[in-house]
């Protein structure tokens, strides 16, 4: 077994509190990969016929009609946020840290942490949540549950064109009648209010962790939005002299020199790393 794996195992065993910082690589390990062409072709055959090959091409795309737009997003959000599929990578991670006082900060909006055993009261999702809708303007700071809207769109979905066939099913803001979208951070109109309490709980947990043996496990956080997870995890470890960082990242495993021996990198995918760490934890 490699020295970094053994080091990370020891740090998990010695920790009292664990902060998990997760980026897109964590969800990719669970099969939610926005560059996955095979899954896209299975879920969106009508969009393949329109020239699309992967889900990342639809992020921010403005060339769809409202019927096409909600045909795509209702199918996508149902698959990502509300399916009953078990995500083994998340469950394995939960098993790895289940005996520790754990908090999760993630840039992912797919709800895979609470759906796979993690305490929603110990979760901070500053980039938003697919479970909520907001006005695109926004005309109000309110948000609404996404699931009923998604289900209504799917009921009206044409199976061939994958368009919402009933105009009445296309969601509108209940206040102004304008366009709505999931409550995710895509521009300055993002409604922050649902995450204020999350942020307060996170700050309180960190204050209490200042006197504990804190381990930060950062998973799959690259440079698309490094300030959300990657740089924040580095800064937290730097500010807590007794804290340690385990960085799990296949493509960007580099560590800041300033953390010295308080940081270790596992240059592999999340599923492999969690499997190796958990097997060692079971054997310990």
UniProtKB/TrEMBL annotation:
Keyword Metal-binding: yes
Gene3D superfamilies in the cross-refs: SIR2/SIRT2 'Small Domain, TPP-binding domain
Transmembrane segments annotated in the record for this chain: none
Residue intervals of the Deacetylase sirtuin-type domain: 1-284
Binding annotation for Zn(2+): 135, 139, 173, 176
Alphabetized InterPro entries for the sequence: DHS-like_NAD/FAD-binding_dom (IPR029035), NAD-dep_sirtuin_deacylases (IPR050134), Sirtuin_cat_small_dom_sf (IPR026591), Ssirtuin_cat_dom (IPR026590)
Keywords linked to the UniProt accession: Metal-binding, NAD, Transferase, Zinc
Keyword Zinc belongs to the record: yes
Protein name: NAD-dependent protein deacetylase of SIR2 family
Species the sequence originates in: Corallococcus praedator
Lineage, opening ranks: Bacteria, Pseudomonadati, Myxococcota, Myxococcia, Myxococcales
